[in-house]
Amino acid sequence: MPHPLQSIWSDRVRVAAWAALVIAVVYPRLVGFTTDSDAYLDVARTLLAGHGLAQSVVDFWRPAVPDPLGLWPPMFPLGIAGLGALGLPLPLAARLLAGAAYVAFALGFHALALRAGGRGFAFVTAIVVLLGPGVAEAGATAWSESLYLCGLTFGLVAAYDLTREPCTQPRVGMRPVLAGLWVGLAADTRYMGIGLVPVVFALLWFGGVRGRRLVAWAAGALVPVGLWLGHNLIAFGHLTGPGLPAGTRTLGQVIAAMAVSLRWEFLPASFAHLPSIAFPALLGVGVATLWALRHGGVARWAALVALTQLAFVGFAAWHAGINDPSGRLTLVAWPFLGLVACCGVAAAIRRWFAGRRAERVAEVSVSGLALLIVGAGLGTFLATTVAPPAQTIARRHAQVALARLVPRDSGPVLTDTGHLLRLTTGAAAVQVPPERYRLREFTADDERRWRAAGVTRAIFRASNRNELGSYLAERLASGAWAAEDSASGYVRYRVGP
């Protein structure tokens, strides 16, 4: 009979191997980069160029290049720059960092699930969660979500273990500090992690962690968060970085969007298409969440973490002009909601089959889990196979066009494709944001600021000309900004006479 420690390590190896396999399958089926990905690469490139944590793709009302980083926290760009300093191309470094963080998150999540159930429960729960299409996509895309989830899960495991330790130890040690540091670094990777600091603090308090141990945990969590918020306060005058336009969604629209996200992004895609399965499953998730909040233990921790993150996203989408509350914004809650669902199913099986034959329990459990894993796997494969090849080709054509249109030794370029332009050509850019993300309309004062910052050229997608706003549309239509060249749907203009 193997030693328990040896068995746990063999489980960890299998979980890591499974995560690596998911990445290997998904990686070639994805473009791997979005606008935010290119933004992270921009910051890393600017840092390696010696300009610090700053952006060379800046918004139209802040045309100084480079501009301090604030819209995103610093950890993911710092990680990319660290790998880039070793000689790796920045795009490769970004995807490798996301993939490595996904594997590490798998290990951390397995450890959290292990504290909720036995070895079999933890292993199956980890496999099911890792097959979530959004989580798998994040592991193979240059996004910060995997790194955030990695820090958060390790922080939750370490914090939960503090509640299981005796309170009579004379020395505090470094464990509470490191447990808090994991959560603090997660908050410095995604801003929503800041909202989890008081939640985990409260869980520790009610879990019996008091006095110097709780203070040590709070110090570990708050120091990295405080340093970054202080940076924002100095650079921008407020804690959350550069300003964002006010939100235009009603609370009802936000809740509806998140409900749609719960169906189509939390459930396996092959199940979400079947209302007869999707709606009972969502009802079951709701029941499991209420059960977890009452039951306690890891299930309650996971439920509170998931609900806090969803509340943070919903509030931000309601009050600010950010992306819809779905996709990347909500996927970080799904692993914890998945853990809640698995805990609820396991508890229900134990209750329903109490006193009955173990063979029947095993048969039902294995059949249900096999169906869930197959459905999740099929959904992940389909979600990462249908569209990306065409997206990859379009992205390559855009890069070829931008490389041709950006003049050599150009100053900052005014554009609606700033991050891709920066990645492709190395040129700095002043970004023309979509209309819904603007603080205000453009004016002649903006043009004077752009020209003072060295902008002499503008490159826009021809298909977006009617979405540039009335001021830019008039400048282009009147010929005040003359068209100089075009390629693959992009047009270059000379700014001013």
Total of DSSP H or I helical runs spanning 4+ residues: 21
Oligomer: single chain
How much strand content do the residues show? 5-15%
Helix content range:
55-70%
- Spatial extent as radius of gyration: 24 Å
Low-confidence stretches: none
The major sheet is characterized as: 6 strands, mixed
Distance between the termini: 83 Å
Mean pLDDT: 85
Based on CA inertia axes, which overall geometry fits? globular
Number of strands: 8
- What is the string of helix and strand elements? HHEEEHHHHHHHHHHHHHHHHEHEHEHEE
With strands numbered from the N-terminus, the spatial order across the biggest sheet is: 2-5-4-6-8-7
Question: Structural class, please?
Answer: mainly alpha
Notes on the structure:
This protein is mainly alpha-helical and 497 residues long. It has 21 helices and eight strands. The chain has helices at 4-26, 35-51, 75-85, 90-114, 119-130, 133-139, 145-163, 175-187, 193-206, 211-236, 251-266, 269-272, 275-295, 297-319, 328-331, 334-352, 358-383, 388-405, 418-425, 444-452, 470-477; strands at residues 54-55, 57-59, 67-68, 413-415, 429-431, 457-461, 482-487, 490-494. Helix 19 (418-425) links the parallel strand 4 and strand 5.
Q: What layout of secondary structure does this protein have?
A:
Blueprint: H1 4-26, H2 35-51, E1 54-55, E2 57-59, E3 67-68, H3 75-85, H4 90-114, H5 119-130, H6 133-139, H7 145-163, H8 175-187, H9 193-206, H10 211-236, H11 251-266, H12 269-272, H13 275-295, H14 297-319, H15 328-331, H16 334-352, H17 358-383, H18 388-405, E4 413-415, H19 418-425, E5 429-431, H20 444-452, E6 457-461, H21 470-477, E7 482-487, E8 490-494
